[in-house]
Specification:
This protein starts with a strand and ends with a helix. Helix content is 45%, strand content 19%. It has one domain (3-125): Rossmann fold (3-Layer(aba) Sandwich). It is of the alpha/beta class. The protein binds adenosine-5'-diphosphate. Adenosine-5'-diphosphate binds next to helix 1 and strand 4. Adenosine-5'-diphosphate binds at residues 8-10, 14, 16-17, 20, 87-88, 90, 94, 119, 123, 126-128.
Amino acid sequence: MKIAVCPGSFDPVTFGHLDIITRACDLFDRVYVAVLNNPAKKALFTPDERVEMLAHATEHLDNVICEKFEGLVVEYARHRGAIAMVRGLRAVTDFEFELKMASMNHHLDKDIETVFMMTSNEYSFLSSSAVKEVASLGGDVSAWVPGPVAEALVRKYSMAGQRG
Ligand code: ADP
């Protein structure tokens, strides 16, 4: 069985992520979508909220498992029996960061390959941070994220607004 891991922050999941996950599911028998629980990185959604949104958005894919993880992604991948980590590439700006990450991960575990997929054209500008910025200003993000995620963003920012 060929197993892959799609690691990331997914804060929150966008249609850009879902495009990569769906394409990974066509190539691998099983795909673990792994939400990095990094307390040092300030996130809008908790790891559990992010996993729940991902699980809901991928429930039509029968070879996906969504879960959170802590620590080194190569170690997580090894525990899951993965042969590859799948990452999405948008602009050239992604390339430098991803090359660095892939080289470090290759050094840590030579048996786990990093596989890159080019973003689909319509999502090349899409990122979780851009979605959060628009949503925080009251803009409509429903073209970029699944319905429940758009609703969760409205709830988060209206709660933040109430707190001042
Ligand atoms: P990180 O926080 O580690 O940058 P993200 O959670 O934002 O990661 O994304 C996880 C993965 O999804 C990364 O490989 C990222 O490049 C990819 N990704 C995010 N948005 C898009 C998009 N619009 N198109 C293609 N890949 C994307």
